[in-house]
Amino acid sequence: MEQQRQSVLAQAADSSFTGSTDKGSTNQTAAVSVGFKNLLLAILDANPYLGDGSKQALATAARMALENGGALTLLVIDEPGTTGRDPKTRLETLSWHMREQGVTEYKVLEQKVTAPASVLVGDVADEIKADLLLLSAEAVHSKFVDANQLAEFVSCPILLIP
Question: Of 28, 40, 51, 57, whose Cβ has the fewest other Cβ atoms within 10 Å?
């Protein structure tokens, strides 16, 4: 884990940094691009039209993929008891949002929960060799995933989107 942390810090140090300071002001603006190339977005949302948190996470992942020229994989996990809902509508909704963000190339993996969702997310992140996991904080707030388990089972950095 420490080696991975050092790797992320090294990537940040090697990335482009631009900053500007107004004279006489303490306000500073800086933009750092870490350059993650293999993004995994976990969608843990029972709403086939996606909740606000999932939409925000999707927009953030799309923007990062476009800016960094990276691959984007959408992992759609069905919550227990929601398997009867309309998966076609959810996929159409995801496709529409991706087109709106300007992303044309991405993969969609659909999984049913057979283990704790946090473990499943970690397994998929390892399988696709993700270098960043993004997910909505709503998934943690709703207790669909456990943040402690995510930290234990996900071997790449995690970005929670509010």
Answer: 28
Query: Can you tell me the distance from the alpha carbon of 74 to that of 42, in angstroms, rounded to the nearest whole number?
Result: 6
How buried is residue 59: exposed, middle or buried, by Cβ count under 10 Å (0-12/13-18/19+)?
Answer: middle
- Return the biggest CA–CA distance within the chain: 60
Q: Which two structure tokens, joined as six digits, stand for 139?
A: 């998934």
For residue 119, CA distances in Å to 1, 66, 74, 91, 158 come to 17, 28, 16, 23, 14
Q: The pTM is what? A: 0.77
At 62-102, the pLDDT tens digits run 999 999 999 999 999 986 665 556 778 989 999 999 999 99
Kind plus residue range of the DSSP H or E element containing 17: strand 17-21
